[in-house]
């Protein structure tokens, strides 16, 4: 840390000098324009940045399959707009993994291919992305997945179950978008200003989006289990419907609290969500008692469904905790 005294020049203008080492390292010299970003009682200063697209290069010689796919996604989340993947020779399997990666990301396409490189580019304008819209969309998809997964289970509907599993990819794509936006706000005050959302709120949305992504994973898990089961009697179906309704209600209350501007109302909603989690235990005990009378193998699979619904409610509780922190007074 370095300190500087504020000087007055011309009788009305406040000035302060910049540390020379910092200025040199960041290319700041006489005539350079710098940007100031007010943030509560702080003032962030950064050299004026150009709006050029960021380009990153990755050697993929020793990467294949899932490792290569994850590496591409990591480069995307890290904020690179153009990603050049290089190797002595890009194999057919590597090209397939790269295509799978681009299909799993929003707005990313292959720009150029040669024998030793593949260039992919994000075609979306980052300044036009909205983290709140992305999280809201994740909420809608994850909640509908959970509802349809339980419907597929109790009605023995294989088509609905497969559709639920496929929709998990939509939530994953949005999760990568949210992560990319969040990391951009950590790097640049300008990104947060363009979003119109504080960096603290971006952190809260990112944290909650992670919970929604996990809920979608559990909905997909239920969908896969539903494909292997052959329906159930009305009593058990009613118990699962009740468990899902309560778990879904917890998530809805928590998300409403997260997006509520009024701090008191947000706190009320979040506390209600946390309180309602207690009702989940009653439903799980009821289902456990019913499963004791079922075939052991079927009971084991349905026990996994109970676990997924209970965990989904817990993830809603995590979102409620985040909403409480967001609504709390700032120090």
Low-confidence stretches: none
In terms of structural class, how would the helical and strand content be classed? alpha+beta
Biggest beta sheet summary: 4 strands, mixed
> What is the gyration radius calculated from CA atoms?
25 Å
Strand composition percent: 5-15%
Taken from the alpha-carbon principal axes, the silhouette is: flat
Q: Averaging pLDDT over every residue, what do you get? A: 89
Distance between the termini: 22 Å
Number of helices: 10
Per-chain topology:
Blueprint: E1 7-9, E2 13-15, H1 20-25, E3 34-39, E4 42-47, E5 55-59, H2 65-78, E6 82-86, H3 92-103, E7 108-113, E8 117-122, H4 131-155, H5 158-187, H6 189-195, H7 199-228, H8 234-259, H9 263-291, H10 296-327
Could you give a quick summary of the protein structure above?
This protein has 331 residues and is of the alpha+beta class. It is 64% helix and 12% strand.
Q: Could you describe the 3D structure shown?
A:
The protein has helices at residues 20-25, 65-78, 92-103, 131-155, 158-187, 189-195, 199-228, 234-259, 263-291, 296-327; strands spanning 7-9, 13-15, 34-39, 42-47, 55-59, 82-86, 108-113, 117-122. The protein is an alpha+beta fold and 331 residues long. It has a four-stranded mixed sheet, covered by helices on one side. Strands 1-2 form a two-stranded antiparallel sheet. Strand 7 (108-113) and strand 8 form a beta hairpin. The longest helix is centred in the C-terminal third of the chain and has 32 residues, at 296-327. The chain is flat. It starts with 6 loop residues before the first strand and ends with a helix. The mean pLDDT is 89.
């Amino acid at each position: 840390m370095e300190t500087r005294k504020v000087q007055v020049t011309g009788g009305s203008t406040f000035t302060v000098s910049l540390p020379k080492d910092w200025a040199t390292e960041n290319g700041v010299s006489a005539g350079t324009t710098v940007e100031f970003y007010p943030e509560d009682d702080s003032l962030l200063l950064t050299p004026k940045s150009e709006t050029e697209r960021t380009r990153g290069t990755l050697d993929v010689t020793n990467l294949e399959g899932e490792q290569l796919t994850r590496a591409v996604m990591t480069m995307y989340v890290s904020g690179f707009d153009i990603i050049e993947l290089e190797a002595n020779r890009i194999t057919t399997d590597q090209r397939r993994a790269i295509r799978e990666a681009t299909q799993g990301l929003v707005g990313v396409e292959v720009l150029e291919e040669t024998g030793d490189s593949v260039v992919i580019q994000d075609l979306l304008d980052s300044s036009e992305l909205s983290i709140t819209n992305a999280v809201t969309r994740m909420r809608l998809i994850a909640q509908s997945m959970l509802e349809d997964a339980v419907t597929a289970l109790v009605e023995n509907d294989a088509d609905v179950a497969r559709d639920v599993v496929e929709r998990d990819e939509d939530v994953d794509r949005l999760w990568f978008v949210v992560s990319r936006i969040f990391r951009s706000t950590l790097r640049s005050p300008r990104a947060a200003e363009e979003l119109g959302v504080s960096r603290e709120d971006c952190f809260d949305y990112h944290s909650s989006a992670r919970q929604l992504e996990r809920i979608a994973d559990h909905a997909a898990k239920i969908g896969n289990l539903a494909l292997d089961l052959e329906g159930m009697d009305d009593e058990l179906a009613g118990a699962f419907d009740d468990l899902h309704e309560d778990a879904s209600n917890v998530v809805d209350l928590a998300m409403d609290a997260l997006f509520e501007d009024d701090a008191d109302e947000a706190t009320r909603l979040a506390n209600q969500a946390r309180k309602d989690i207690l009702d989940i235990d009653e439903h799980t005990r009821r289902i456990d008692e019913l499963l004791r009378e079922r075939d052991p193998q079927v009971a084991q699979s349905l026990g996994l469904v109970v676990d997924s619904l209970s965990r989904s409610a817990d993830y809603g509780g995590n979102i409620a905790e985040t909403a409480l922190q967001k609504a709390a007074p700032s120090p």
